[in-house]
């Protein structure tokens, strides 16, 4: 993994999460802004998939479990899709909060992926 890309993902995921949670608690239903915030998080996760495929080929191999890393990455990539699908089906203020919680969860998962990639010794 690339540290600056991980930090960018963390920043975007936390910002999107806080935005959606605050909007939901303020009574806002899912909108283009909240769904767009999660779409940006998803776009960065797709970029992370590309990085995770290319990095070992250029000598940046993980020090932890590659299987555990990929389980985190695939799970994180599915979270925004599930949260947005829920939000578009339910369309209440609480579905906006759920999108925010999903984005905050993704931030935690991205940091854990960074730890698996760089800190652990297999």
Name a few traits of the molecule.
122 residues; mainly alpha; 4 helices; 80% helix
Short description:
The protein is mainly alpha-helical.
Task: Give the end-to-end Cα distance, rounded to a whole number of Å.
Answer: 16 Å
CATH architecture tag: Up-down Bundle
Q: What percent of residues adopt helix (DSSP H or I)?
A: over 70%
Strand content: under 5%
CATH topology call: Four Helix Bundle (Hemerythrin (Met), subunit A)
Largest sheet: none
Total strand count, please?
Answer: 0
Q: Classify the secondary structure makeup into a structural class.
A: mainly alpha
H/E element order: HHHH
Indicate the mean pLDDT: 93
Kindly give the count of domains: 1
* Integer-rounded radius of gyration: 15 Å
- Detail the poorly predicted runs: none
Instruction: Categorize the overall geometry.
Output: elongated
Q: Briefly, what CATH class?
A: Mainly Alpha
Number of helices: 4
Describe this structure in words.
By secondary structure, the protein is mostly helical. The chain has a single domain (3-118), classed as Up-down Bundle (Four Helix Bundle (Hemerythrin (Met), subunit A)), CATH 1.20.120. Helices cover 80% and strands 0% of the residues. The longest helix is centred in the C-terminal third of the chain and has 26 residues, at 93-118. It is elongated and about 50 Å long.
